[in-house]
């Protein structure tokens, strides 16, 4: 009896070790079939990048102040005169640059932002109720983007508990602290700006121009990235990539980046 | 004499301890960085995505891709790091930042703070303030004791829309240093030459005054 058990056990070992021998062969087969090029995300220009943007859509824009904003896409939406937009962006630009361009022509029906203090026209349209505004705590804004990016429908955050931000929202106590339920955004397009990108849609950001751009990638149905420098896939070091190309549907090299400075502060040498 | 905003910043700088990660709000809080002792190690976080914020750049060396939360051009110190907005607020909500210093329009004696909106008049938005005050363990408010109309900003209850509830620990105004204790303002220090009576007259909320109140050392 004991002998029979040992025999079966030893057969199992033999069988499983045979399987292990076969696994490398399977991968050899798989790797020989794999395509040697990455999926190309390149579009030729901003016109092609903005194809499909329609009146009434909800659109995310990366950037903090004027730093790291997708200025080529904004200029194109201004030119196309797309109307009735719901815009999700930390700020609303200044009067004559950034989202201020779309405000000027009343293209924005609703603005979702955390801070809008730099823009006089914005304040006027908001106070006169010509435009709907949803002010969202900055961390909540980022997390609502990231939730959309990562398939999380809602999350609890302490930000805004006990304030008008929490009105009408579910709250819950964990430990001795209260939290507010906030939902992921649902957007049609996300326009982001990166420093470098490759044809596979991989992105690298620079300095504090990173801000909301990474969390908006893949947070809308279509993500459009404009980059200062577009290189062939393989030229960027995979270790240095901030956003993998899977989150980006269209990428193009911006024709021009003004990169305006909002508050120039310097010291003397 | 009431303190200047530089002196308020100077007094708050004494609260900054060795090894602290600090988030500075816009206005007077930004000035605090100028007065932190240089024999201690302190890292400044700006919520737009930098840890290790340095001074303003030299003329001609400014970089449009390098700003602070006030949209001012800055520099990055050796050892600094950049990150996205979600990670920035992970640092904040996750209580990895040790000290938050911010301005306010009103503070109530239970620690409530209002600093983002005057209904029908001024709406700039809360920026990162709601995330900061809901999470930080250690919040210091830097502000003037009264508003332009001479009315107290230290109240029994805030009249303006709140930014956060029961969160402020300490307040440094141009007249004094206060701590929130048992739902009241406890007077800790006076500005040089400012009397307890003057502070009392400028404070609408309940004050706790115990023993002799020392003048602040600045």
Descriptive account of the structure:
The complex is a heterodimer of chains A (269) and B (218). By secondary structure, chain A is α/β, with parallel strands linked by helices. In chain A, 28% of the residues lie in helices and 23% in strands. Chain A is built from 7 helices and 11 strands. In chain A, strands 1, 2, 3, 4, 8, 9, 10 and 11 form an 8-stranded mixed sheet that branches. A 3-stranded antiparallel sheet of chain A has the order 5-7-6. Chain B has a 10-stranded mixed sheet with strand order 4-3-2-1-5-10-12-13-14-15. The longest helix of chain B is centred in the N-terminal third of the chain and has 9 residues, at 5-13. The relative contact order of chain B is 0.16. The mean pLDDT of chain B is 96. The chains are: A alpha/beta (269), B alpha/beta (218). Chains A and B meet through helix 5, helix 6 and helix 7 of A and helix 3, strand 9 and helix 4 of B.
Round the Cα radius of gyration of chain A to an integer and report it.
Answer: 25 Å
- Count of DSSP strands of chain B: 15
List the secondary-structure elements of chain B in sequence, H or E: HEHEEEHEEEEEHEEEEEHE
Mean pLDDT of chain B: 96
Rg of chain B over CA atoms, rounded to whole Å, is 17 Å
Could you list the spans of chain B in which at least 5 consecutive residues all have pLDDT below 50?
none
**Biggest interface between chains:** A-B, 59 and 57 residues
Q: What does the main sheet of chain B amount to?
A: 10 strands, mixed
Total number of strands of chain A: 11
Which stretches of chain A are low in confidence, meaning pLDDT under 50 for 5 or more residues running? Answer: none
How far apart the termini of chain A lie comes to 91 Å
């Amino acid at each position: 009896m004991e002998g029979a058990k040992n025999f079966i056990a030893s057969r199992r070992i033999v069988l499983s070790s045979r399987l292990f021998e076969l696994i490398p062969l399977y991968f050899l087969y798989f790797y020989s079939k794999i395509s040697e090029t990455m999926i190309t995300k390149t579009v030729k220009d901003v016109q092609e990048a903005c194809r499909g943007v329609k009146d009434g859509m909800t659109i995310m824009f990366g950037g903090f102040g004027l730093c790291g904003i997708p200025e080529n896409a904004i200029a194109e939406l201004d030119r196309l005169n797309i109307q009735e937009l719901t815009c999700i962006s930390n700020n609303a630009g200044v009067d004559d640059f950034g989202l201020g361009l779309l405000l000027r022509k009343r293209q924005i029906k609703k603005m979702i932002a955390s801070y809008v203090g730099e823009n006089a026209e914005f304040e006027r349209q908001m106070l006169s109720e010509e435009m709907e505004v949803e002010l969202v705590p900055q961390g909540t804004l980022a997390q609502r983007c990231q939730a959309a990016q990562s398939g999380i429908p809602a999350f609890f955050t302490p930000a805004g508990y006990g304030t008008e931000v929490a009105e009408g929202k579910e709250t819950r106590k964990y430990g001795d602290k209260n939290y507010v339920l906030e939902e992921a955004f649902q957007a049609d397009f996300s326009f982001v700006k990166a420093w470098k990108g490759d044809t596979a849609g991989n992105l690298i950001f620079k300095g504090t121009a990173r801000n909301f751009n990474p969390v908006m990638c893949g947070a809308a149905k279509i993500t459009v990235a404009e980059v200062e420098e577009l290189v062939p896939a393989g030229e960027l070091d995979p270790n240095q990539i901030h956003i993998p190309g899977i989150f980006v549907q269209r990428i193009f090299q911006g024709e021009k980046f003004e990169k305006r400075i909002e508050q120039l502060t310097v010291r003397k040498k | 004499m009431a303190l200047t905003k530089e002196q308020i910043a100077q007094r708050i700088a004494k609260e900054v301890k060795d090894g602290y990660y600090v988030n500075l709000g816009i206005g007077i809080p930004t000035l605090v960085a100028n007065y932190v002792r240089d024999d201690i190690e302190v890292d400044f976080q700006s919520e737009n995505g930098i840890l290790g914020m340095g001074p303003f750049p030299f003329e001609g060396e400014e970089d449009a891709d390098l700003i602070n939360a006030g949209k001012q051009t800055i520099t990055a110190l050796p050892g600094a790091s950049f990150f996205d907005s979600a990670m920035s607020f992970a640092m904040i909500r996750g209580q990895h930042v040790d000290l938050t210093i911010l301005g306010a329009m009103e503070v109530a004696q239970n620690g409530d703070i209002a600093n983002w909106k005057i209904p029908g008049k001024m709406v700039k938005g809360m920026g990162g303030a709601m995330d900061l005050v809901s999470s930080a363990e250690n919040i210091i408010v830097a502000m003037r004791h009264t508003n332009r109309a001479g009315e107290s900003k230290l109240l029994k209850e805030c009249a303006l829309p709140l930014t956060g509830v029961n969160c402020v620990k300490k307040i440094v105004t141009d007249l004094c240093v206060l701590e929130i204790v048992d739902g009241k303002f406890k007077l800790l220090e006076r500005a040089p030459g400012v009397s307890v009576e003057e502070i009392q007259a400028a404070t609408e909320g309940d004050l706790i005054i115990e023993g002799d109140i020392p003048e602040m050392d600045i």
